From TrEMBL:
<dbReference type="GO" id="GO:0050053">
    <property type="term" value="F:levansucrase activity"/>
</dbReference>
<feature type="binding site">
    <location>
        <position position="41"/>
    </location>
    <ligand>
        <name>substrate</name>
    </ligand>
</feature>
<dbReference type="InterPro" id="IPR023296">
    <property type="entry name" value="Glyco_hydro_beta-prop_sf"/>
</dbReference>
<comment type="similarity">
    <text>Belongs to the glycosyl hydrolase 68 family.</text>
</comment>
<dbReference type="Pfam" id="PF02435">
    <property type="entry name" value="Glyco_hydro_68"/>
</dbReference>
<dbReference type="InterPro" id="IPR003469">
    <property type="entry name" value="Glyco_hydro_68"/>
</dbReference>
<protein>
    <submittedName>
        <fullName>Levansucrase</fullName>
    </submittedName>
</protein>
<feature type="site" description="Transition state stabilizer">
    <location>
        <position position="196"/>
    </location>
</feature>
<feature type="binding site">
    <location>
        <position position="112"/>
    </location>
    <ligand>
        <name>substrate</name>
    </ligand>
</feature>
<dbReference type="GO" id="GO:0009758">
    <property type="term" value="P:carbohydrate utilization"/>
</dbReference>
């Protein structure tokens, strides 16, 4: 079991203008679409078990990202999301098409996850969120966490994933700790969470974990986000056991999205993304940014990074320009371009934002450069 750590209003209230580290303003030349007809967001590389991206010949990397056609209202993309393959090469990013066959996924759409390549360099395990149910007449916000395997093919050309198999729901919701995703309002930003599984192999103990975004079952607040955990367990029916959350923002914030862990210099760092509009407006409200905690132990003893939890934010002149940050083991950080213009109607970038890099020193984190 875990020892629960609370991210509280007192932590966020301690933020001052001088404490907020901000990324650079995204410029027009930074917004390079992957392809004209597709907007992408929430991205992750196919990784080794240690978290480092798996590299093909010539240093190329295979990434996954959520993708959908471009809509007049960018929020409509969530109802059409599918996981896509994207090749990262010296010339930039190149779209390779949907990751899974059209009829394979059990949801009406697919949301975020992570992917790990096996020791054979060919078997890829995808952990992902199936949202809704295939064939449902009205898309729901039900979220279930699945895994599936595929074989990596074409590594010397355009790689693809073939022979998809082994689809199974692996993280069972424990109602004592995690609220049903059918309980929340069907409104983006207010829905409840049971999603975003991020794989982590503990280099100390050797066990495998999935960290995910959840909602507190016993909460009396509409703002009840938690970071949940499942641990690999061969004795469990699905091969994974769901354990109690490690981080709670109950009464503060509704969504601790895409939580993930890296281990560096003897410390565990747990990061998540959240947005200004999902904080409880009655309390202190933090900026849209990357947040996190640090500990010497994986399942207990977490402390807010920088004393507040905030690692960095978007610049105040473009407070929603990027989102969904993912910290890689080399401390490079990816995200996607969200609402990057502030001089008119909402402008959804729908592509990779420029990478940034972190500096970590004990409980403190900052942007490099």
């Amino acid at each position: 079991m875990t020892n629960l750590t609370f991210w509280t209003a007192n932590h966020v209230a301690a933020l001052t203008d001088g404490d907020v580290s901000c990324t650079a303003r995204i410029a027009v030349q930074d917004v390079i679409p992957i392809c004209d007809e597709l907007g992408i967001w929430d991205a992750w590389p196919i990784q080794h078990v240690d978290g480092h991206p798996y590299r093909l010949p010539e240093g190329r990397e295979i990434w996954m990202a959520l993708g959908a056609p471009r809509f007049d209202d960018p929020d409509d993309r969530h109802g059409h999301a599918r996981i896509h393959l994207i090749l990262r090469e010296a010339q930039g990013w190149r779209h390779l098409g949907p990751a899974m066959p059209e009829t394979f996924s059990p949801g009406s759409r697919e949301w975020s996850g992570s992917a790990v390549v096996g020791d054979d360099g060919m078997t890829v395990t995808l952990y992902f969120t199936a949202t809704g149910r295939r064939g449902e007449a009205i898309p729901s916000f039900e979220q279930r966490i699945f895994s599936a395997e595929a074989t990596l093919d074409g590594v010397f050309g355009d790689p693809r994933l073939i022979d998809w198999r082994g689809l199974r729901e692996i993280v069972e919701r424990d109602p004592a700790h995690y609220m049903s995703t059918l309980q929340g309002p069907a409104i983006v930003g207010q829905i409840k969470a049971f999603r975003d599984p991020a794989f982590f192999r503990d280099p100390i103990g050797g066990s495998d974990y999935l960290f995910f975004a959840g909602s507190c079952a016993s909460s009396q607040s509409s703002y009840n986000g938690v970071v949940g955990v499942a641990v690999a367990d061969k004795a469990a029916p699905t091969g994974w056991s769901t354990i109690s959350p490690v981080i709670s923002a109950d009464g503060l914030n509704n969504e601790l999205e895409r939580p993930h862990v890296i281990h560096r210099d003897g410390f565990y760092y747990l990061f998540w993304s959240t947005q200004k509009h999902v904080f409880d407006p009655a309390g202190p409200v933090g900026p849209t940014g990357l947040y996190g905690m640090v500990s010497e132990h994986l399942l207990k003893g977490w402390r807010p990074i920088n004393g507040t939890g905030l690692v960095f934010a978007n610049p105040p002149e473009a407070p929603a320009q990027a989102y969904s940050w993912l910290v890689l083991p080399d401390l490079s950080v990816t995200s996607f371009v969200d609402d990057w213009r502030v001089d008119g109607d909402r402008s959804f970038g729908g592509t990779f934002a420029p990478f940034v890099r972190l500096k970590l020193q004990g409980d403190n984190a900052s942007l490099e450069g």
